[in-house]
DNA sequence: GGAGGACGTGAATCACTGC
DNA sequence: CGCAGTGATTCACGTCCTC
């Protein structure tokens, strides 16, 4: 995480196809890319009241044809793939004009799609001529660098963010408007500024505090702004100096978070909780060899606990809490922690999982000075 | 409209790549295609309760690699393009596994995308392992045979269908379940039967009474069933005789509409009030991680807000606004929105529900004309 | 008969660690 | 790298059954 220290939290001026090769390989944890959409607009569009619709007519969104756009897309995707860590992931946002080409090319390059996500716009521009449906969404593709790799996904953080229900692939946010929209003399600085709320969810989902987030089409720096708010590092690449200037001012004006702990406390992610083998309960004296355990409190399903933490049934069957549980339930697998009970001091049957929790608390609390004996 | 009379309202047995060349060129008004998705599933998947997930493991969804799938896709798309009238349009539905390849290839063939549409599933299957987002949508591409052609789009019909507001590109429907799902001896006949509501909207949008609608992957005939209900003609192509048999029975059981004029009388479809998860307040910067919240304004009941929108009390207790509220009140459930307060700019304690209301207003208001980026 | 709970199920690229 | 062991993981509906 520290091999790129010099470039952290910086904006590099230039075309990402030229700049990316100068970065070390496999050095960034996350990429968010908002490439040109290749809109192919033809002529001006007027509202019913004959006012002019401000279109995306920037030079950077002009390509000769699909094949030119494909070549451009392949080039920046390949350059991104090189700098992404093997366990890193990438997000790309687009509309129907370009997202099918982007998606097919990134699959061809070996990226592995994890989800596609639709950003549902609460307040999209209507279709003024009434000749199509209101174009009310954009698409994000979330992909890993390679198939079969481990990747960061803060499942529980996103679940919390969604009122303790699993986060879905349809995300509803309003457009970037109001105070959040950067303007100079009343004119918007960038024609396609993305809302910070969208980036907040992206970064929370797929990066950790201290990670390096790369945005090869940095624009006015939404990715950098949210990275700073969430205590991630960012690297921005942008070829338009006026966008770079706006982004620098924008990010500098953000107060860095004062309470990093509140950001890090994210995952009640159980995978990070240290695993406690069942045998530890014996080693710590919470259970003793020879003691009896009941399966689902059933008086007929009693096992004897052996010193090696295996269980033995009356008929001689022997195995771990999980293996015996698998046999007893007849299901393909079984988490034994949830099914075995011991006799507590008051005579009632209590779950062995309570003992695991007790042991976790025990091992997490700061030891007394007395416990540092001889170290 | 009448040049294909002999084949109207028929199901042709065979692979559409073989059958389509026998149809006259430029002879159908609309195509709806639900091709194989190329899911590439690996092992078995178990639910948390250890039951088995019924996978799509049909032979028709198996391809050697992307290149084989691309060749298949190009072949059927080309054959469809030939039989489509010059002013006709085509719909293709898919998931992230295949839709990017389909979209890129149809653009390469000269089809002109008019919209992409997301079918938001009200009741999708969850992600049981918690390793990705719930895959809660599928994508439809709606395209014309050629750029610049006139095409059928029943703008007002769809507007009526949507309570007199312009129809958007995000459509919310439940999965095809219950009585609508074809079953034999309790087993579903087809693993991917689409809901009729989806086809209803597609046909209403882009065809007229008496038009010819072609479905090259007819399956169990959802397209034909809806076409009959809406007084359109259909041509189905399907290579599995058991699907064909099921489709014939299904369509035969439908009474043809007696009052064609009544087809204009359309059901209403009110949009639900959008739910706002508490986490949205952080995503939109209305609250910040590290900030403190008070329960019922009680100075003794203070919690710290974490970046994932969970709260942490001084004693380490942690949970959502609702879960902590439940614990603090001791009642079976608790609407956290009514109980938690934040410190407002003037120092007073204000309800977080005010922030929710503010966010609703923010995202409902029409943006400035300038905020539209031509999308 | 109505309320409420149990149960089934849906296009799914669905684990990680240690030996 | 393969294999075995451990143990983490679900939401909205519709249907059927019980009370």
TrEMBL record, chains A, B:
It holds the Pfam family RAMA. It is an enzyme of class 2 (transferase). Residues 267-361 form the RAMA domain. Transmembrane segments: none annotated. InterPro entries: DNA_methylase_N4/N6, DNA_methylase_N6_adenine_CS, RAMA, RM_Methyltransferase, SAM-dependent_MTases_sf. Belongs to the N(4)/N(6)-methyltransferase family. This is Methyltransferase. It comes from Herpetosiphon geysericola. The lineage of its organism: Bacteria, Bacillati, Chloroflexota, Chloroflexia, Herpetosiphonales.
């Amino acid at each position: 995480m520290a091999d790129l220290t010099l470039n952290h939290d910086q904006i590099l001026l230039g075309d990402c196809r030229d700049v990316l090769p100068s970065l070390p390989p496999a050095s960034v944890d996350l990429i968010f890319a908002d490439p040109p959409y290749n809109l192919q607009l033809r002529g001006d569009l007027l509202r019913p009241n004959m006012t002019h619709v401000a279109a995306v007519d920037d030079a950077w969104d002009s390509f000769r044809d699909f094949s030119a756009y494909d070549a451009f897309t392949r080039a920046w995707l390949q350059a991104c793939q090189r700098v992404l860590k093997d366990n890193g992931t990438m997000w790309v946002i687009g509309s129907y004009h370009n997202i099918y080409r982007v998606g097919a090319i990134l699959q061809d390059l070996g990226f592995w799609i994890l989800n596609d996500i639709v950003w549902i716009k609460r307040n999209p521009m209507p279709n003024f001529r009434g000749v199509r449906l209101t174009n009310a969404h954009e698409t994000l593709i979330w992909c890993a660098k390679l198939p079969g790799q481990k990747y960061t996904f803060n499942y529980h953080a996103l679940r919390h963010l969604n009122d303790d229900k699993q986060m879905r692939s349809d995300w509803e946010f309003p457009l970037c408007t109001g105070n959040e929209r950067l303007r100079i003399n009343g004119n918007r600085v960038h024609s396609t500024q993305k809302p910070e709320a969208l980036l907040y969810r992206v970064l929370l989902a797929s990066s950790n505090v201290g990670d390096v987030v790369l945005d090869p089409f940095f624009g006015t720096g939404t990715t950098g702004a949210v990275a700073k708010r969430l205590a991630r590092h960012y690297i921005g690449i942008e070829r338009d100096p006026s966008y770079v200037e706006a982004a620098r001012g924008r990010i500098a004006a953000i107060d860095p978070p004062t309470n990093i702990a509140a950001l890090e406390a994210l995952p009640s992610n159980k995978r990070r909780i240290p695993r406690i083998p069942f045998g530890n309960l014996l080693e710590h004296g919470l259970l003793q060899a020879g003691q009896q355990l009941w399966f689902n409190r059933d008086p007929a399903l009693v096992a004897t606990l052996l010193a090696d933490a295996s269980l033995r049934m009356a008929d001689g069957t022997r195995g771990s809490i999980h293996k015996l549980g698998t046999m007893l339930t007849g299901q393909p697998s079984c988490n034994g922690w949830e099914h075995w009970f011991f006799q507590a001091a008051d005579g009632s049957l209590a779950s062995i999982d309570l003992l695991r929790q007790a042991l976790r608390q025990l091992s997490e609390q700061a030891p007394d000075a007395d416990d540092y004996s001889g170290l």
